């Protein structure tokens, strides 16, 4: 062999070696230096499957399960497997759909999740359809399959507003709760307890890691499930609700617009919270959910609205009880102070408010029992016009302070979303409206719970609870305790006693006396007494106007019982129900009887059917229904609704606008604030009538 | 040569056979890891011959039998029949061209019932033998350009057929015979000119035409400036430089565009362009539309017209890269198990090894290949007969080319060409070809003391 040849052989060997070294270097680069491929591989080849735990249950105070879970089934389809054979005709027959609809749904599925991923073909099957499908499932497999879906079950079909509902999360929600690990397609509580206690109820999601293939199909547990975490079921909520009382309340309120809130004064626990009209919570589970939701949503009576916490009303005469306590504490009256009533209150020169019923009030107790308007107008003026405070501004500020102490004018912090704070007018506000002309006279409506005073029924019943307790309350709440402890500190606020004002017990007792007399012959609510229970009550009757026409009065009633050892404080409003004692009174009376005695006496059972049969539709809503029936206007409303929805969402939780544009002949306003467009639209959806009361607002009793 | 079975094993290089067995074994493991699914019984799939690894095992047994026969064959048989086999190979290629079966868009297969034969693949053996035969002829004087032309012609004839069959990848293999020819004394000028022309063509595909013209001109001016003294003495240097410049610009500006636009079919151009990662849109709109249709038919683009060519390389790099230093472990590769890499059991088998065994594993495989090549070259160099030496170099060159191109393709250093990884990739044709190539050489080497022509 020549040297020439051995050199060439050597060159060839060197070239071979060099090329191999280059390859090894590239491998070193890919496999050792570069970590991005590992991430990319995990990203595409490992599937993180979220395992949903069952949501927490809810118990009432008697340990009834009032919110439970059940399992329904989804029929899912994997479009790619349809060609492996499927008895389409039989399937269409069971589901009662056409072949065209079948194709449409399959195409929808492909568009949503692709050919190889299961898509829901028919969700949340009812029992009968599920049974039929399960029986013949082999004819439809492998393209179709039944998949378990845990859904909410409502054993009592009541308290829909308290529980709220679940819905698929929307992009906005995802953005807001980005750290909570929600994903598109998840369900979360949107309203009610489901929303407030979402963190507790949702439990802890489990995560399973799966290997998946190039078509995104999970194949086998990743590393035998070594990294999986198990799902932990949501915790049970123990509430202070009494589901039977709730059912009774909803029954009594049916056909009406209004709400009832009953609180246990000892604990602040809410026993019943009715918002009428209500709906069956079961409507918002199951596969008809969407349809039901849009029906409820477009109903002019706004059944989805929880009026108990979001509806603000003038509390009317029920408010006089607080006026009395403040008056005594401020020393402007005593229990024995009387006031002559000559048919109306003339000291401001307007003859308003008018006096109904018996004239002269010899003392406070009698004034409460007969709901004497001039008496409390006098008290109110005396409080804020006290010379020791100098100006009427500081007088009103003192008065406001007491009202805030009674839980009015600000949100209480109940464990339900969208609570409103009502309104207690401030001096600053009146300064703005009346300038230097403002006095106790042009705001005298406040004395009898009208004018600018606004509160929710929840606030009203809480104020009654505070009266019952003689000066303290626990923040009203639905949930008493959470299984496994309050890990998120959601209940802390409900375990501290609030005692914002320090008023001697004797003053409360005087008011109790007056409220007890309400239920006695000669009192406004004498018909409503319950044998064996010492009830302290107060009627309220609020004049209201719609489009300048006087409507039937709103009926109010607030009470607590028994007087000696208060177990229930309750307030009720029935819109356009008439006198306080006409409809709201009997409802409260029956609910107190039911709660204290656990049953309703035979002779009063007839009342239950009588009052639940009463149907009152306010003119406002009649108009709305008429509007809805006109196709053109429906379209307009629809457009307005979309804008509204946005403003409502922003509005929820925001202090309600006191700018309600009411005019009172007593006032000499320089110029009424211009009604903003938002106010108009808000009035449309808000159950409260106060924005519609364009003329005046007159108390009767 | 004695046919006595007792001394049949005399002179056989067992190291080469051991390396061969190790590689085939690695191949079986890799194919198994690609196809393994925990829910499928292994015994059943092996006995049922349903899976590729069980088929590969069967091919392996067949190859061992054929290898055994080769070892029993007299070395003279190969020299005697070399030309005959070459002729047979060419005939097979012609038959394929006329009546071949189309698989994956290339009409390069002859169906044999139990398997499909790819003559362009087997032809490598015949060319190796024929080339060895020609160069070992006493009358061949490899210093003459005529001999060069004949040798190059012998080597590249099957490549021409392969290109006609749309198997550009296989065609490229035949260029590796230049390694053999270089060893046998082919003047380097052939390689330089050839390589330069190839670089020019590639450059005119990759670089913007005007930019390339400017670069070439700058290079020419620089050369003239650097050689200005020489040029002053001898004007022919200037003429050479200018004519080379003219030729380059000519190729770049006129020859390549002319070939692409007028001579070749759009899909062929597209294939060449995509090898270099370039999009090709014909200037003629009708042709462009036809090309899109063709591509859609082959499933190369999805409905929305998105290109999916890079998917293979991306997945391949992900699989190898995610293996890390030590790998994820046998049968634990998520990318492999998820079928993410297309053609993973054949052309992309290296990715399965990369993912499961990591950098150490891939380096070990490369080391085994390198050892194999060095063993073959050393064996070739110790041959007394030119025939055996030429043949040995051809075997080394073919294996080298396959290994390098295949692995470079999986790690993103080379365009995707359908070339299997020798002895490891799934495929009966490929395994058989390499078995025969190696075993013939083992046989020849065993007889290295004799002069074989």
What does this molecule look like?
In chain A, helix 11 (243-253) packs antiparallel against helix 21. In chain A, the strands form six sheets. In chain A, strands 2, 3, 4, 5, 10 and 16 form a six-stranded mixed β-sheet that branches. Chain A has a five-stranded antiparallel β-sheet with strand order 12-11-20-19-18, sandwiched between helices. Chain A has a three-stranded antiparallel β-sheet with strand order 1-8-9. In chain A, a hairpin with a 6-residue loop joins strand 19 (549-561) and strand 20 (568-574). With 701 residues, chain A is α+β, with helices and mostly antiparallel strands. Chain B has 453 residues and is mainly α. Chain B has 19 helices and three strands. Chain B has helices at residues 14-35, 42-48, 52-72, 75-99, 119-136, 145-164, 168-173, 177-183, 188-206, 209-226, 228-233, 235-263, 266-275, 285-297, 310-322, 334-337, 349-381, 386-410, 428-446, and strands spanning 101-103, 106-111, 116-117. Chain B has a three-stranded antiparallel β-sheet with strand order 1-2-3. In chain B, a hairpin with a 2-residue loop joins strand 1 (101-103) and strand 2. In chain B, helix 1 runs antiparallel to helix 19 (428-446). Chain B is globular. The two termini of chain B are 14 Å apart.
The greatest interface here is: A-B, 40 and 45 residues
Could you name the ranges of chain A where pLDDT drops below 50 across 5 or more consecutive residues? Answer: 653-701
The oligomeric state is heterodimer
Let me know the average pLDDT of chain A: 83
Give the N-to-C terminal Cα separation of chain A.
Answer: 129 Å
Q: Percent helix among the residues of chain A?
A: 25-40%
Short description:
With 701 residues, chain A is an alpha+beta fold. Helices cover 38% and strands 16% of the residues of chain A.
Labels describing this entry:
heterodimer, A: 701 residues, six-stranded mixed sheet, 20 strands, B: 453 residues, three-stranded antiparallel sheet, 2% strand, globular
